[in-house]
C-alpha cells in the first residue's frame, strides 16, 4: 500500500501572489524556491498557506499554493498539515495547541519577543539588563549604572534596531517611558573579533535542528553604533571554523538551555565581543534566509527540511 506523503505548510501572515509568491524577495527568491525543491526530494508535499484567516484550527489550512514541477499552483479546499514552518511574524500564530508541530512554537516566539524574558533565562551570557516601565523605574535603574559609561535603552519587543538609544545615563534621563524597555550595559565591540572583524560589530550565529549552521557579522555604518542592516549596517558571511573557541563554547551552553526546552527551534544568537568575552544581545526567531551566494545556504535549507520531517513524525 502506498504511504501518504507528509503535508508541509509554510505559513505567511501576508497573502502571497499565487503565480510567484516570492517575486518581491530579490536575491533570496531563488533560495526560497530551493527550500521547496528540497522538500519534494525528501518525499514531502510542499504548500504555502497565506493570509491571517488561512488557518482554521486543528492544523487545517486554506488559501493554499502547492509546489510541483518547479512552480506553484492554486490548491482548492483545505489540507491537514503534518508540520508547519511559521513565517508569519508577530505572536498571533501559532496557537499553543499545535506548537509541537510548528517550527517555531508559540512559547519560543514569546521568549524572543520579550527581551526581559530572554534575560531571565540567559542572564549569565548577557550584559547587565534591567526592565523599566515607568519614568520612576528609569531613574532608579539609571542610578545603578556608572555615569561616565554608555548605556543602551531598547524597547522590550521591537526588532531591527528600532527605538534604540545609546548614550550616557544623564542624557537618557530625559527620554519619555511609555512602554516596557530594557536598560542594558553597553558592550564596546570596537576591539573586533580576532581573525574575523576589526572594529564594532555584532556576530549572528544561526541554529537549525540543534546545530550551528551559519554565521555572519554585521558592522555599523560610519558614525553609528547600531550594526543592524535595517539601520544601514553591512553584512558578510563568516565560516563557522573561523569563530573563536570561546564563542562557540557559549553557543553550545545556550543551546543546552534553549533546544530541549523549546523543541529544537530555528533561531539566531546575536553576540557582541568585548575583551574576548561573548555577550548575547538577543535571540531571534524569524531568521532571514541566506542569499544564493552564501556558502552555508544549502546546509541551512536541508536542516530546515530535516526539522520539518522530524516534526511531521512526532
Q: Your description of this structure?
A:
By secondary structure, the protein is of the alpha+beta class. The chain is built from seven helices and 18 strands. Strand 17 and strand 18 form a beta hairpin. The mean pLDDT is 92.
Write down the oligomeric state: single chain
Count the DSSP helices.
7
Per DSSP E runs of 2 or more residues, the count of β-strands stands at: 18
What does the main sheet amount to? 6 strands, mixed
Give the radius of gyration: 21 Å
Strand order of the biggest β-sheet: 6-5-2-1-8-9
Mean pLDDT: 92
What is the ordering of alpha helices and beta strands?
A: EHEEEEEEEEHHEHEEHEEEEHEEH
Broad shape? globular
Distance N to C terminus: 22 Å
Detail the poorly predicted runs: none
Percent of residues in helices comes to 10-25%
Strand content: 25-35%
List keywords for this structure.
18 strands, 5-stranded antiparallel sheet, 314 residues, alpha+beta, single chain, 6-stranded mixed sheet
Give the SSE map.
Elements: E1 7-12, H1 29-41, E2 45-50, E3 55-57, E4 60-61, E5 64-68, E6 71-75, E7 79-80, E8 83-86, E9 102-103, H2 106-113, H3 115-122, E10 129-132, H4 135-142, E11 151-155, E12 165-167, H5 169-172, E13 181-185, E14 202-208, E15 211-219, E16 234-238, H6 245-261, E17 267-274, E18 277-284, H7 297-313
Amino acid at each position: 500500500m502506498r504511504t501518504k506523503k507528509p503535508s508541509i505548510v509554510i505559513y505567511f501572515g501576508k497573502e502571497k501572489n499565487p503565480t510567484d509568491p516570492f517575486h518581491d524577495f530579490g536575491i533570496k527568491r531563488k533560495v526560497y524556491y530551493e527550500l521547496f525543491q528540497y522538500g519534494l526530494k525528501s518525499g514531502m508535499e510542499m504548500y504555502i498557506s497565506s493570509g491571517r484567516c488561512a488557518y482554521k484550527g486543528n492544523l487545517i489550512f486554506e488559501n493554499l499554493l502547492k509546489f510541483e514541477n518547479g512552480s506553484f499552483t492554486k490548491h482548492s479546499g483545505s489540507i491537514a498539515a503534518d508540520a508547519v514552518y511559521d513565517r508569519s511574524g508577530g505572536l498571533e500564530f501559532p496557537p499553543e495547541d499545535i506548537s509541537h508541530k510548528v517550527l517555531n512554537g508559540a512559547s519560543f516566539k514569546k521568549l524572543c519577543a520579550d527581551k526581559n524574558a530572554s534575560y531571565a533565562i540567559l542572564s549569565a551570557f548577557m550584559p547587565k539588563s534591567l526592565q523599566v516601565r515607568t519614568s520612576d523605574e528609569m531613574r532608579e535603574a539609571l542610578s545603578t549604572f556608572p555615569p561616565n559609561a554608555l548605556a543602551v535603552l531598547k524597547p522590550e519587543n521591537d526588532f531591527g534596531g528600532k527605538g534604540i538609544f545609546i548614550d550616557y545615563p544623564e542624557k537618557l534621563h530625559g527620554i519619555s517611558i511609555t512602554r516596557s524597555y530594557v536598560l542594558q550595559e553597553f558592550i564596546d565591540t570596537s576591539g573586533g573579533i580576532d581573525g574575523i572583524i576589526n572594529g564594532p560589530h555584532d556576530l549572528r550565529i544561526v541554529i537549525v535542528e540543534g546545530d550551528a549552521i551559519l554565521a555572519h557579522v554585521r558592522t555599523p555604518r560610519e558614525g553609528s553604533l547600531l550594526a543592524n542592516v535595517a539601520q544601514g549596517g553591512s553584512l558578510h558571511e563568516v565560516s563557522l571554523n573561523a569563530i573563536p573557541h570561546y564563542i562557540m563554547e557559549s553557543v553550545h551552553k545556550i543551546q543546552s538551555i534553549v533546544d530541549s526546552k523549546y523543541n529544537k527551534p530555528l533561531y539566531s544568537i546575536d553576540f557582541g565581543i568585548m575583551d574576548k568575552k561573548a555577550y548575547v544581545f538577543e535571540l531571534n526567531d524569524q531568521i532571514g534566509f541566506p542569499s544564493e551566494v552564501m556558502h552555508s545556504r544549502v546546509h541551512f535549507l536541508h536542516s530546515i527540511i530535516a526539522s520539518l520531517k522530524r516534526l511531521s513524525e512526532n
